[in-house]
């Protein structure tokens, strides 16, 4: 017992001694600027797991083993982390600086750059790393749904398909609504040339105060792309490569053989020609009857659609010294579409060079050469979807049957045969932008940019007499189209900045000249001597020789002035005025002035905000400006002559000329858009949540609109300044940091855009243009037709008869209730633009793993579904397997088949195709792994990342087996893709 007490006593003494050695450190942590105490700040003893957090007064208490040598690590979200040596001080007073890295980020704006905190306009910035997350042909596809107010859709699933981009809706009715692209300070229309790996950042300028500096060119928004530059120090080599398999993202099937047979039988039963299977020879030919007996039929779409393949391989080198910086990249992109003959190859090389000559002189250039070799084909699915399926595509020896079952429809596989069809385009585009920059005085700089784009393109098309295109002709046809473009941009920018006390001034002046020249030629001939000559040697053509050529040019001269003012960094003002002169417009109307003004107030920097704990950052913005549009073809102000065949008698011909179909307008002037924008930028919880909200209202007048003239005038159309439109809406962008720890980071971004687009006035201010489908109070693109309410049922025979119809016919709404169905009963069924769109992007990092998950939605859009309208009531062509009406099985979906009434003759047949095309899709799922730094040291690599990506994987909509982003067309359906890639840096 005594021994136990002794041991117990010794343990107590040892514990007391150990406890006596530990010391308690106390302290208080506050904001270095405001002096306000900071709550829940992490305080940790370096090299240990010992730590604590500050209380509501900013105070903390921490027991440490040695107060003389210990080091504290202090971290707090939204503030810069710091370390503090204790040095025996047991009562510390610490101050943390705010982490303004995000607010201090430089954003590229027109002819300059500005810190994000000082922005007065509506500008969205995307860094290069974000652009690489979605493998794509066109970089704009990578940011679909990630930019508030920017609507991006893919036009088709063909290799190298065009991307449609609009910023804040459609302002013009007939003129171009696409944004202006600026690459390294120079206008560049072919954005698909730019590899995402070469991009440093992308900025989208949306409101008039941001775009006004570009005048007429910025009316539809401006997208600025800055490519990567070299850096001093050790050269860095980067290799980015991926390869992926693409598959059709759902394609609805046409009727099978039995389904087609049943529909055609029903169509002829309606007319009394078919009563039983014994009557099949009356409605089917002999070969079709044999196919029915042997259950032979073909799904041609299944034979045409294959898996595609996409790959991209890029290598870049960045390096230089303090005075010379070089960036070089080479890229090879290859995409095979889901059809044979659909193939795109792109080769590109980029060289960016910056050289400091003296302390006040700098020169450099950005250059790129891009070469395309692309093969395409006319839509094969159109033929596949309408050909009668009761046949086989190949004979017993495996040879293609050109006209199956001796029918009139050519085999949809015809173009895939040797020497049958070829459509090949080759484009070489050279872009060079050289600059000289002088900085003779502090704050003063002068920069002169000279950009040249040389575009050479040719397309050759050969269609043999055994191709789909020439199936009804007796000879082949060859076409050779060529074109050249020379685009020159010369801009001179003078900038001066000065700070006087609390006042900061920035002055910018710009003078620019833009010249655009294009020429093209068209050659055609029929009956090539040898199929192997394709579209060459057209002089050997037997007939149909045609030659055309054209030339057009236009110039734009501009002068711009801008003033930026800041007081204490809290009150910001920007004023811009730009004068543009366009050669496209009429004398006396060529010049226009485009002014803008914008202001911002950084409320969070005010003294009265120091005590609050809600906002980490708060800024309000307002702007107003006018932008212009001259998006009409050159020479629209002039009338032109066209050749008219003329003969005095049966043997003597002569040449005659008459006024062309479009008459010139000598009063043509600028289309003008005035935009008001109110915005709020804010962040909460010490920067954990950030949000940007913008409300805008754009009113466009003097639309450049092609107007139809009465035939009695002798001409068809004229372009005039008539009509008004309006776009107004709200944009919301939210960035959140959900989790941020040493091993796990989870950030998410939410984007929401809602735009109301409407026509305010047309040629006659209060009259709709029904012929063109333009309606006051509605968007530019709408579906105007009768409203289908179902199918007339047997019990409704009397009601149907009162309108002149019978059971089994399409029933539409009598909107005016007068008992007569006529054109006055048509209405707007839906719009082709969405009510709202949005995206939800998530990035999760766990140690060396990274996961990206991205969802995109486009809600409220309508489509005219070609599949839904694929219904031939006669059964002469194949249809989709729709639920049609019969006396025994009444339905409200589709009318009764009728062999005596053609598709075009079926009343209200167009109403079958209109569908709600809203969709939500999982746009991207990507999982990557970055090798640890310790594993790379022996391989002399600085970074290696391996990843797999699924693109466009799932689409949820009311339209079955179809991706409605495409619209309603069945040709070239959109695809989904599975990708594996590798990023390596040396």
Automatic annotation (TrEMBL):
<dbReference type="Pfam" id="PF07715">
    <property type="entry name" value="Plug"/>
</dbReference>
<keyword id="KW-0675">Receptor</keyword>
<dbReference type="Pfam" id="PF00593">
    <property type="entry name" value="TonB_dep_Rec_b-barrel"/>
</dbReference>
<feature type="domain" description="TonB-dependent receptor-like beta-barrel">
    <location>
        <begin position="415"/>
        <end position="953"/>
    </location>
</feature>
<dbReference type="InterPro" id="IPR036942">
    <property type="entry name" value="Beta-barrel_TonB_sf"/>
</dbReference>
<keyword id="KW-0813">Transport</keyword>
<keyword id="KW-0812">Transmembrane</keyword>
<protein>
    <submittedName>
        <fullName>TonB-dependent receptor</fullName>
    </submittedName>
</protein>
<dbReference type="Pfam" id="PF13715">
    <property type="entry name" value="CarbopepD_reg_2"/>
</dbReference>
<keyword id="KW-0472">Membrane</keyword>
<dbReference type="InterPro" id="IPR000531">
    <property type="entry name" value="Beta-barrel_TonB"/>
</dbReference>
<keyword id="KW-0732">Signal</keyword>
<dbReference type="InterPro" id="IPR023996">
    <property type="entry name" value="TonB-dep_OMP_SusC/RagA"/>
</dbReference>
<feature type="domain" description="TonB-dependent receptor plug">
    <location>
        <begin position="116"/>
        <end position="222"/>
    </location>
</feature>
<dbReference type="InterPro" id="IPR037066">
    <property type="entry name" value="Plug_dom_sf"/>
</dbReference>
<feature type="signal peptide">
    <location>
        <begin position="1"/>
        <end position="20"/>
    </location>
</feature>
<dbReference type="InterPro" id="IPR023997">
    <property type="entry name" value="TonB-dep_OMP_SusC/RagA_CS"/>
</dbReference>
<keyword id="KW-1134">Transmembrane beta strand</keyword>
<dbReference type="InterPro" id="IPR039426">
    <property type="entry name" value="TonB-dep_rcpt-like"/>
</dbReference>
<dbReference type="InterPro" id="IPR012910">
    <property type="entry name" value="Plug_dom"/>
</dbReference>
<dbReference type="InterPro" id="IPR008969">
    <property type="entry name" value="CarboxyPept-like_regulatory"/>
</dbReference>
<keyword id="KW-0798">TonB box</keyword>
<comment type="similarity">
    <text>Belongs to the TonB-dependent receptor family.</text>
</comment>
<keyword id="KW-0998">Cell outer membrane</keyword>
